[in-house]
């Protein structure tokens, strides 16, 4: 019941006394470093050193910054004021320019955040660094709504578009933000005759537009983005708790019936929570707010307590304790409607919850907390050693998703308690995105599965039931050919990624055209986009750096050995056993 009490306390936490997230770029006497909002990347846990940082406030400033890098042959990347990307996408590499390392430039868009609505054209044009919340609020104030957005609002428009961030919908143009873009401008390197940098404006129908939509920061710096809007509308949301026995057979019907459908699957609890989410008439009663509990400002003591509890259960190998924790968390979420409120500041009192699109489509109040008092913060803020987790996101064809669910159920039935670790978080969150014209977007209507699970503070520490989640990961990306979300996942999810996107060759050609010198390349793109095979060191599988093929890639000292999967026998996982002979 400890987790239950902590969650209830969290729901009542006074968000006005909250610490805002730390800036991702920090400079001192030793130079500047970039880190993400979690304090650790998926590929490693080291901060990214950079030689210099530019803070443009206009498109002219962006051009000047890219020209500086272009003239000097510097590696260059852009980063927002949020930096919630888990892979090391925004790190330019090259280090700080000392000891023979190449110089690098980081362009922060934190001060480049203008938003302008054209009500007649039903569009909004945002500077790349504009927070998603600012764009949504500006549209709503003009009597319009942005039809799609990620569930987490703590992102910039440029970052969300370039990484393929999404909500959930198979209706209309779908749930991915980039599929609602009608125009954007890129700032790319150029030669001396063109001043070393130039602006490339692109609109839907232009030859390079599909490359620019999901560009991963590899083509240049997104400067401005124009998004299509719709007349303002309301949504009505109800969460329906069901047994998961037919989940694999009715997910597609659920997505077809409800415009903003999703499903949270808790395999250890044999539960699936169906989100019944549709448009409602403007005159429907309700001024509801989606204030998802996981994205609220959380009492620092609460997030530390939850982490301490989970760490203690890990250390004692107490799977039953994790299952009790998972059951309590789900009960707490059900009690408070998972964060839905009938009105801002009020507690949940029942379904349906009806509210305007701008208040229902996304959440993340901890990302915009004022610096009032150090009592609360985002639960994962690394300064306070709260929640720390992996986030894996696999994107399936609908037919392959059904087979994946059946495989996970078979694995669960072999060891039911081992699935509790993911249910301590949000279970497996299932969302829906449409086929995209973006070359690195989804090539078909797809099912997205997102799951979080415990990450050890020590990268060399083995984890309870880690073999189960390694097998689920390999089931998804290897057996069932899932595509990785570009802004999430451990490194192993990106193996063979080029072959999973039919538009890859065209994107690569666009990259050669816009950045022929590779100034926007990085160590991450060399490894992942370039298809480089990573070396395998002792213990590399413990933190997701490799798939084990020998015992030394796990940790024999802790009783973890490289073994085959239980259901997907081609998987190679680190499994605990008291003896190597077991």
UniProtKB/TrEMBL annotation:
PROSITE patterns: FAD_PCMH
Signal peptide: 1-18
Biochemical pathway: Cofactor biosynthesis; L-ascorbate biosynthesis
GO molecular function: D-arabinono-1,4-lactone oxidase activity; FAD binding; L-gulonolactone oxidase activity; oxidoreductase activity
Pfam families referenced in this protein's UniProt entry, alphabetically: ALO, FAD_binding_4, GULLO2-like_3rd
GO biological process, one term: L-ascorbic acid biosynthetic process
Ranges where the FAD-binding PCMH-type domain occurs: 46-232
InterPro entries for this protein: ALO_C (IPR007173), FAD-bd_PCMH (IPR016166), FAD-bd_PCMH-like_sf (IPR036318), FAD-bd_PCMH_sub2 (IPR016169), FAD-linked_Oxidoreductases_BP (IPR050432), GULLO2-like_C (IPR055154), GULO_Plant (IPR010030), Oxid_FAD_bind_N (IPR006094)
EC number(s) stated in the UniProt entry for this protein: 1.1.3.8
One GO CC term, this protein: membrane
Catalysis performed (reactions): L-gulono-1,4-lactone + O2 = L-ascorbate + H2O2 + H(+)
Highest rank taxon of the organism: Eukaryota
Family per record: Belongs to the oxygen-dependent FAD-linked oxidoreductase family.
NCBIfam families linked to this entry: pln_FAD_oxido
PANTHER family: GULONOLACTONE OXIDASE (PTHR13878), L-GULONOLACTONE OXIDASE 3 (PTHR13878:SF125)
Name of the protein this chain belongs to: L-gulonolactone oxidase
Species in which this protein is naturally found: Hordeum vulgare subsp. vulgare (Domesticated barley)
Gene: LOC123404611
């Amino acid at each position: 019941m400890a987790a239950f009490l902590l969650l209830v306390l969290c729901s009542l936490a006074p968000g006005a006394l909250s610490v805002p997230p730390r800036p991702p770029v920090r400079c001192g006497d030793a130079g500047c470093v970039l880190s993400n909002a979690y304090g650790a990347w998926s590929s490693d846990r080291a901060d990214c050193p950079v030689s210099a940082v530019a803070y443009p406030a206009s498109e002219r400033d962006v051009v000047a910054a890219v020209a500086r890098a272009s003239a000097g042959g510097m590696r260059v990347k852009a980063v927002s004021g949020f930096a919630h990307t888990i892979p090391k996408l925004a790190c330019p590499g090259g280090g700080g320019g000392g000891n023979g390392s190449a110089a690098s430039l980081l362009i922060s868009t934190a001060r480049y955040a203008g938003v302008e609505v054209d009500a007649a054209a039903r569009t909004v044009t945002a500077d790349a660094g504009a927070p998603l919340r600012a764009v949504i609020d500006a549209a709503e104030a003009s009597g319009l709504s942005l039809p799609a957005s990620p569930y987490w609002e703590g992102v910039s428009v440029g970052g969300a578009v370039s990484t393929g961030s999404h909500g959930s919908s198979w209706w209309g143009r779908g749930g991915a933000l980039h599929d609602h873009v009608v125009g954007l401008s890129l700032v790319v390197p150029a030669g001396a005759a063109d001043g070393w940098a130039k602006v490339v404006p692109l609109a839907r129908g232009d030859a390079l537009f599909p490359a620019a939509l999901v560009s991963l920061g590899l083509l240049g710096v997104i400067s401005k983005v124009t998004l299509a809007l719709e007349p303002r509308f309301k949504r009505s949301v109800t969460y329906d708790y069901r047994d998961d026995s037919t989940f694999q057979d009715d997910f597609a019907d659920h997505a077809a019936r409800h415009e903003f459908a999703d499903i949270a699957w808790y395999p250890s609890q044999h539960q699936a929570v169906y989100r019944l989410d549709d448009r409602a008439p403007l005159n429907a009663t309700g001024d509801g707010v989606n204030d998802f509990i996981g994205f609220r400002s959380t009492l620092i003591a609460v997030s530390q307590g939850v982490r301490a509890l989970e760490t203690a259960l890990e250390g004692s190998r107490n799977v039953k304790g994790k299952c009790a924790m998972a059951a309590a968390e789900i009960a707490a979420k059900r009690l408070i409607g998972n964060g839905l409120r009938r009105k801002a500041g009020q507690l949940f009192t029942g379904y349906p919850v009806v509210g305007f699109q701008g208040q229902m489509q996304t959440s993340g109040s901890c990302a915009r907390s004022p610096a009032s008092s150090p009592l609360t913060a985002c639960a994962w803020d690394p300064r306070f050693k709260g929640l720390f987790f992996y986030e894996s996101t696999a994107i399936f064809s609908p037919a392959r998703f059904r087979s994946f669910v059946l495989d996970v159920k078979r694995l669960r039935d072999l060891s039911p308690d081992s699935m509790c670790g993911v249910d301590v978080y949000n279970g497996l969150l299932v969302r829906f995105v449409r086929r995209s014209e973006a070359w690195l977007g989804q090539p078909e209507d797809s099912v997205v599965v997102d799951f979080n699970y415990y990450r050890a503070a020590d990268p060399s520490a083995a984890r309870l039931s880690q073999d189960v989640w390694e097998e689920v990961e390999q089931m998804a990306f290897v057996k069932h050919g899932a595509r990785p979300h570009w802004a999430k996942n451990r490194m192993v999810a990106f193996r063979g990624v080029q072959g999973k996107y039919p538009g890859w060759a065209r994107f690569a050609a666009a990259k050669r055209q816009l950045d022929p010198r590779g100034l926007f390349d990085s160590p991450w793109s060399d490894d992942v986009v370039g298809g480089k095979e990573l070396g395998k060191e002792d213990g590399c599988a413990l933190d997701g750096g490799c798939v084990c093929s020998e015992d030394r890639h796990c940790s024999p000292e802790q009783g973890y050995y490289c073994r085959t999967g239980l259901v997907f026998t081609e998987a190679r996982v680190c499994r605990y056993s008291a003896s190597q002979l077991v």
